[in-house]
Q: What sequence folds into this?
């Protein structure tokens, strides 16, 4: 029995060692293949027209981020203030910048933490701003149905991002490259 336990421990010690570099890489790959284009396409809907659209969010940005305030303003974005403009712009930029940082593995822990905050705010906006409280959209934990958009899917998103917060970007990343370049300077 002792030999079996020793073999088990030796094998899974190697699996754990491989997992230290494979798990972050796999998490970034899964993020890139499932969520990168989701967030970038969402960000594109928030940009205004032309080059100056980078500084002038579309009505889509306001309707997604501030649905009740925009409705109260009669869908006239000029009646919304600088705060609304700044939040819409920051949210739009976050949908482009944070996913890119995660995919290339630069400032991965901070970008992943930022995305967790983004997904949380996105979910709360869907619930309280857009009234997404039906069973199919909101869902419920431990309800045997794994297909609700908010409590089921986004819980997986947050778990995936949490792996990156805890483990970092892994060996194949800009973070790792920069860390190796900084090692001689620190020593």
A:
């Amino acid at each position: 029995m002792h030999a079996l336990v020793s073999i088990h421990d030796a094998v899974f010690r190697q699996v754990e060692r491989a997992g230290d570099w494979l798990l972050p890489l796999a998490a970034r790959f899964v993020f890139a293949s499932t969520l990168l284009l989701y967030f970038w396409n969402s960000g594109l809907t928030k940009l205004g027209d032309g080059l100056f659209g980078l500084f002038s969010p579309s009505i889509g940005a306001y309707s997604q981020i501030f649905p009740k305030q925009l409705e109260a303003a009669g869908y006239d974005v000029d009646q919304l203030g600088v705060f609304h403009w700044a939040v819409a712009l920051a949210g739009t930029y976050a949908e482009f910048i944070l996913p890119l940082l995660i995919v290339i593995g630069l400032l991965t822990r901070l970008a992943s933490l930022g995305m967790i905050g983004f997904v949380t705010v996105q979910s709360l906006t869907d619930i309280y701003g857009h009234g997404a409280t039906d069973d199919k959209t909101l869902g419920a934990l431990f309800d045997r149905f794994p297909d609700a958009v908010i409590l089921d899917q986004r819980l997986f998103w947050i778990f995936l991002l949490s792996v990156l917060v805890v483990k970092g970007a892994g060996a194949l990343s800009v973070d790792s490259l920069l860390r190796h370049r900084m090692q001689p300077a620190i020593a």
